[in-house]
Amino acid sequence: MSLGERTEAWTRRLNDAIVDSPRRVIVIFLVLTLVFAGGMGLVSTDTGATDSFTEGLDEQEALDAVNQEFEDPFEPESESTQLIHSGGNVLTKEALVRDLRVLEEVESRDDLRVASTNGPATVVAQRIDPSATTAAEQRRAIESTSATRVRQIVRGLSENPRFTGTLATDFNPTSASASASITVVSHDVPAGFSDGDLQEVQTTIRSIAADQPGEITAFGTGVTNAETANVIGDSLTIVMPVVVLLLLLFLVVAYRDPIDLSLGLLSLLMTVIWTFGFLGFSGIPFSQQLIAVPVLLLAVGVDFGIHIINRYREETVAGYEATEAMREANNQLMIAFIIVTVTTVFGFGANVISDLGPIRNMGIASGIGIIFTFLIFGLFLPAAKLEVDELREKYNVPEFNSAPISSEDSTLGKFLTFPAQVSRYAPIAFVVVLLVTGGMAATYGSGVDTSFETEDFLPPEEQPAYVTGLPEPFAPSEYTVTETLNLLEDRFSTNQDQSVKLYVEGNFEEGHALEALADPNDDAPGALAVGDGGSAQPTSIVTVMQSHAEQDPEFADLVARNDIDGDGIPDRNLARVYDALFASTSGDRAEQYLTPDRRSAQVDYAIDSSASQAEAAVDARQFAGDFRFETTATGQLVVFDAVTDIIFNSAIQGLILAMGLTGLFLVIAYAVLEGKPLLGIVNLFPILIAIAFLLGTMRYLDMSLNALTATILSISIGLGIAYSVHATHRFIDEFNEGADAYESMIITLSGTGGALLGSMLTTSLGTGALALAITPVLGDFGLLMALSVVYSFVFTVVALPPAVLLWERYNGTWDGLAMPMTG
């Protein structure tokens, strides 16, 4: 017996087990559903947004070292909260008092763990009364001072970096005004203090600030994580009801029978329960990317469900009794379902090779979910359908409409077979046109951008009307992070997108150490060459030292005595020079660029505003190689560029892997089962054209490959191949019955084509509902997923017929060389 015959015999035995013992199958699946339901309560939520993408990168580890080793009172830290005051002049007496009232209430709460505070109000108050150490004392100090005196103090602090560093770039010393300010609240946290604890602290501070008059808001990683978690919940709340309603609408049209509809919906619900239960038991956290998984599984489940019910109805119309009709339908579909499942797992699961954890988790979750979908729709649904039909007959429950979706004589059937009728006359010309247009679309689409931005994971500053107008319980939470990020970028000089950092490790007490930091700056590469003559504009321990020397003659003399070559940079006795600098008024500033043990330094470099993220990151990495000490380019821009590169590589590698595995499997499967290996290539042909057009559409719509859309290429193969596989498998059944290729294709498109159309409508609208999600990353993915499904269906109907006709023409030449494998 050949391997193909053994495979068919095995699937028949499996089918017989389902058809002959449906109750046993139903009980087993219901018990498993209860087991997986227990795992749903174990599902955790990943609120880290970008953190999970950057984990393990060398650039991120260098940035973590910078954040840990260098003190900057003006930068947000993981264990600090920023209070951002905006609106009008934030340096008036009244505005400063408002800041301190917020701080006073925050300090009064022991659970908020306030260790220290620093902002314009605290600096002004301590200039008035140096003994005022609490917010209450500082508030009273400013309240007892005249507004005129407060303005004088503000003007006198215009050269104090601890004061000016907390103000917007539009700070005007003359008028003592600024449009925004930052007050940093540092927290004294114990061991074991979790992200959830920080989130609770910061959201509480945000509530306190919101209750005070004036535009004051709290910002920090805890607030960002809280809003990210809300985004996941709100997106599911908005998207899933729309998906369910759309699925319900089209399933009603497809099934046209409430009992069959209920069985389909039950199977979909079980698929979701199994998948979420698996996430809980496996410990995979639920992130924004995984919101797409249940939608994808529903799409594939709908496809399977429509096919099994529609084929069963075709057999009953042909005169079979219920049991034999299901046996015949399942015998025909089981192989197709297995092929679709394996190829879909290849497409979805190809993302497991990604170096990025969230994309890898999505590949695992979707791959396992597809296997669950096959088991539930391939085994449970047929058994449940048989059992329900037996009960329906026993209790005389009427059938509402059990006709197939389309037939050869129907208007829909004629429409679906039109491409096959046209291509019959010139199949070679059709295939050539498809190859040329597909190649043009792929070439155009190869220029699609790749991006990775924090804003992708956060709601836009202004929500569309359909979101803001939703009633409870669908109304989304209030989101402030994007607005705050935009304010920080617009009004403060702390925009990390306009600078890069170099993390330098070495012994900075050696005589040449400071020269080693300064020497490469005269010949900086492109994006860093923003100074005169192509030089860089760094901020480092060298520039802090030079700036302090201009203000302190005694320190300037110390530097000069130890500057052998007269270039303004000391070459000896550096330990003594550092001691004097760290003990001076510039000591806080110096600590931002050199560690106390003098073993690590950071250098900030401004970059050309016209340079792209990729150009700046490449130049920064090249520049790091010019330093004598071990140097790593880092900073948010460099880290995100590294993630962008990985995203692009993941997309291409996932596509190649999915395409290669799918093509190889199809060739082997059709060789083993039918002795027709070239049908595997024919099967893949429409989907490759669909992917080419999808890429071209992405570029045309100015949509980039990002943290989620990068998975679309391999997923499109996994999801789209189902259309081609079902059509090809039905074609083989008809072809083996003695019809020629053209007649078989007409029967296929008029019969199975109707099920494909119903599946396309439900799937495209269901996945397209993700476009309603709150975050851009999910919206783009939903739109592209819907387009992918439409393209897959269209090119299955348009591209498969001429490819099949060409296959028949050369069938004897090529496929005859590959006989079915024998055991």
TrEMBL record:
Q: GO CC terms for this protein?
A: plasma membrane
Subcellular location per UniProt equals: Cell membrane
Q: Which domain of life is it from?
A: Archaea
Q: Which Pfam families match?
A: MMPL (PF03176)
Q: Which residues form the SSD domain?
A: 264-383, 673-806
Membrane topology for this entry? Multi-pass membrane protein
The UniProt keyword set, sorted, is: Cell membrane, Membrane, Transmembrane, Transmembrane helix
**Per the UniProt record, which residue ranges are transmembrane?**
25-43, 236-255, 261-281, 290-309, 329-350, 362-384, 425-444, 655-673, 679-698, 705-725, 745-774, 781-807
State what protein this is by name.
Answer: RND family transporter
Q: Which organism is it from?
A: Halorubrum laminariae
The major lineage groups are: Archaea, Methanobacteriati, Methanobacteriota, Stenosarchaea group, Halobacteria
